[in-house]
């Protein structure tokens, strides 16, 4: 960790300290990075996680195909997949980048609506760092694969741990937005939940519109 020149200087965490602090001591860590969000570190960690997750998922799929060596069709698919890894990594990076910027922009807009005083840089940094618990999900999936845990049990364990990682990430996002934007925990949680609620409402409106449209078209088509 960097040390201050004098007692009034801001102490900002280094790369490894940032990872440890966000995961296990988030509130003091977010307070330290409030004035100077480490966007480059956060982006590096976010994209490394995205690439790691893509590689792990790809390797699992390849291993599943390799479990059927006598199937010629699957063997040919496996050979094709061998050359697709660079493209999978590329698209994982592109998708992660779009998700980061778009959802980060939405979060910052909602935070400003609720009276937040943070910067877009701070919001993007917090959103990227909130993804850090995904490290443990990747590690668990690798461990389950190495131990050759049966598929059903592995899927159940991955689902439970994945849910825990999701909740952990949401908590980190709430805490980070609270510190960066200077509002209460309740408003920070509302900031995180508002886009989700909006998507749910839009989805319900879309489903209702489809039902109404189908109900209108059926009589016209002579369907009882």
Descriptive notes:
The chain is mostly helical and 224 residues long. It contains nine helices and no strands. It has helices at residues 15-24, 26-33, 39-66, 72-82, 85-113, 120-129, 134-146, 151-181, 185-220. Helix 3 (39-66) runs parallel beside helix 6, helix 5 (85-113) crosses helix 9 (185-220) and helix 6 runs antiparallel to helix 8. Mean pLDDT is 85; it is low at 1-7.
How would you characterize the largest beta sheet?
A: none
Structural class: mainly alpha
* Total count of strands: 0
Helix coverage percent: over 70%
Radius of gyration: 22 Å
Order of SSEs, N→C? HHHHHHHHH
Low-pLDDT stretches are 1-7
Strand content: under 5%
What is the terminal separation in angstroms? 72 Å
User: Count of helices?
Assistant: 9
Mean pLDDT: 85
Shape descriptor reads globular
Write a concise synopsis of the structure shown.
This protein is mainly α.
Using brief descriptors, characterize the structure shown.
mainly alpha, 79% helix, 224 residues, 9 helices
